[in-house]
Amino acid sequence: MIKANADADVARRLLSRLRDVMAGGGSAQERLDKVVHAIAESLRTAVCSCYVMRAGEVLELFATHGLRQTAVHQTRLRVGEGLVGEVAAHGRSLALADAWSHPSFAYRPETGEELFHSFMGVPIIRGSRVIGVLVVQNREERGYSDVEVETLETVTMILAELLATAQVVSREELLPADGIGLLPLRLEGLGLNGGVGLGTAVLHQPQVRVSRLVAEDPEAELVRLNLALSSLRSELDAMIHNDEVVGDFHEILQTYRMFADDKGWVNKISDKVRSGVSAERAVQSVHDDTRVRMQQVTDPYLRERLHDLEDLANRLLHHLVGEEGRAHIKDLPDDTILVCRNLGPTELLDYDRSKLRGLVMEEGSRTMHAVIVARALNLPVVAQVKDVFSIVESWDPLIIEGDHGQVFVRPSDDVRETFERSLQVRQKQLELYASLKGTPTVTRDGVPLTMMLNAGLLIDLPNLDETGAEGIGLYRTELPFMARPSLPDVAAQTALYSRILDAAAGRPVVFRTLDVGSDKVLPYWHGDPEENPAMGWRSIRITLDRPAILRQQIRALVRASAGRELRIMFPMIAEVAELLQARALLQREIDEHVASGGVPPISQRVGTMLEVPALLWQLPQLLRHVDFISVGSNDLLQFLFASDRGNQRVTDRYDSLSAPVLTMIKSLAEQCSAAGVTLSVCGEMAGRPLEALALAAMGVRTLSMAAAGIGPVKAALLSANLAEIRAYLLPLLDSPDRTVRRKLRAFALDHGVRI
Known about the structure:
Blueprint: H1 2-23, H2 28-43, E1 47-54, E2 58-65, E3 76-78, H3 82-90, E4 94-96, E5 118-126, E6 129-138, H4 146-165, H5 171-174, E7 185-188, E8 190-193, E9 196-203, H6 218-240, H7 247-259, H8 263-274, H9 279-294, H10 300-321, E10 336-340, H11 345-350, E11 356-361, H12 369-376, E12 381-383, H13 388-391, E13 397-401, E14 406-409, H14 413-435, E15 450-455, H15 463-467, E16 472-476, H16 478-482, H17 490-504, E17 509-512, H18 540-545, H19 547-560, E18 565-570, H20 576-595, E19 603-610, H21 619-622, E20 628-631, H22 633-640, H23 659-675, E21 678-681, H24 689-697, E22 702-705, H25 707-718, H26 722-732, H27 741-750
Parallel strand pairs: 9-10, 10-11, 11-12, 15-16, 15-22, 16-17, 17-18, 18-19, 19-20, 20-21, 21-22
Antiparallel strand pairs: 1-2, 1-6, 2-3, 4-5, 5-6, 7-14, 8-12, 9-13, 13-14
Helix pairs in contact: 1-2, 1-4, 2-4, 6-7, 6-10, 8-9, 9-10, 14-25, 17-19, 19-20, 24-25, 24-26
């Protein structure tokens, strides 16, 4: 205990001394020289050296006490090279009694370090980046205690601010080569929500500038920390209970709120405060350390929850430093395009929604909470844009194109004019689509079609009225499961499904049972790693192997549908026996519901997704047991062509408008029609005008798609003569060409079809 107190006193005295050095005059180099001298003297080490990250991921010796001064600015190590490079590569501290025996040791004779055996290196982290390494060495072989490691880690918090604020290495040096200067630049990413946005870049920089680094009284800082935590929790509770926060927003915020009570997170911050730094610097340090470590985690759920933790840390910092930390939210340009590395859901809601025109992210995924909120706000979103936060400057003009995942940085006048014209055309198209909302979807030759909506969250449901869709052809029940921290019970599921049916107001809703696995991961349910998860243990295979989960979901659907029609669809069926097994569970739940006095659904319609090609050769048997079939074109085509739809090398190799696909759809439509079974398509193919024309010409009469596709597809169908298109396509089905797309487009344009 006495030694621990003495070590804490040493750490506090050192921090106080470093604070004086940073506040003093002199160049950055002079202050850095004083820092390494002070550290070596206070910790009684023979050597203290500071390596700084330069362009090309090279660590340069910038200052040293104990090594040869002639090595300063001469000795360089690549990230991953030597012990210093090892610390930088992993973002973790390393303490060794005998450094020479470590396999990563790299001897540099110009430094004179052959005299020193023990080594302790700590990464200097700012934001999410390692910007340097601080090293101490001793002549004798000696171990370094945890307290000594923690002391040096605390010191690097101060050093990170010195390196950043003094711009020891200029920002321009660290920019990617094609991002230097003011040249126009096109960046590629992943489009997560369609649309075009023209505007001005606003960098989302939630990190509060921490000016107060060292604290004289740790106990007083702990009081400040606890008060800020209490204020943070109250703020989140107020957001959760806001009348405007309903449905999925409520679920997201409830999950997010749990992090504020995480004892491990709070204890780490408290331990940092006890080491002598201010509360705000402790919060920032714990967050930076967590983020560097989590970047090495491959689990998609854990990585996405990291974004929520980052949001939470920034909010806590705001409570510690006051309103100055929220300056980035104010005074937005009227055409703001938000640029960020990542984003928490509440951070996006902090911005004035009327001024937002788009969202660009270095990271991000479809199931990330902030992306779900952005889609609800109808913002174009492009994610996974490499290095965008380093390339784009504040107030740069930007164009974001969400349909194809493109970002134009500092676009030339002709590019901007092209997109402005495109926006004008798009606005006119939107006005046309809005005018068609109440018009029945009947082709020029009198063929009626049904337009349905794909949905997966409560925030999608207003699109029913906005688009004039006739119902929900696919409700993805797994998305609410993915937004929760634990498996929802029967009561929670019943309440959710009831709200969906209420919002549909009598229009049909097709509920697809839980479809998880492959790229859709539940946070509380981890299976064994699979080499090919898309064709592995997923979807109906999981729920039939774990029937309690499927029965609970069916029970909730039956209860929610009391006195109403129940439409239920089973995914990833590969053989009729699987469908019969699932139907038996459905009937069992209905029988038990009625036996217990419950009101049954007034009718039930049972269907299957057609995603596995094996079902195509079981259609006669299948059609005797279903009321409808819905083609999931995304999975069906990847299995049909043995082409991974997530692999960029092969995604464009095969075309949905190819003779094999259209021949298959034609045969399927004819067999379903003969059996009196409704056939629909609910994959992405249904939401594109040209593909929708081909599907309808081959006999499909129900199309279900995302809200953005309903207007364009409806306009195309209303202007089409299906008999003419079918007569044109049928001879092309014998063609060896890889696609009929170009010919069909030309035919449609020649015949006045709006595509």
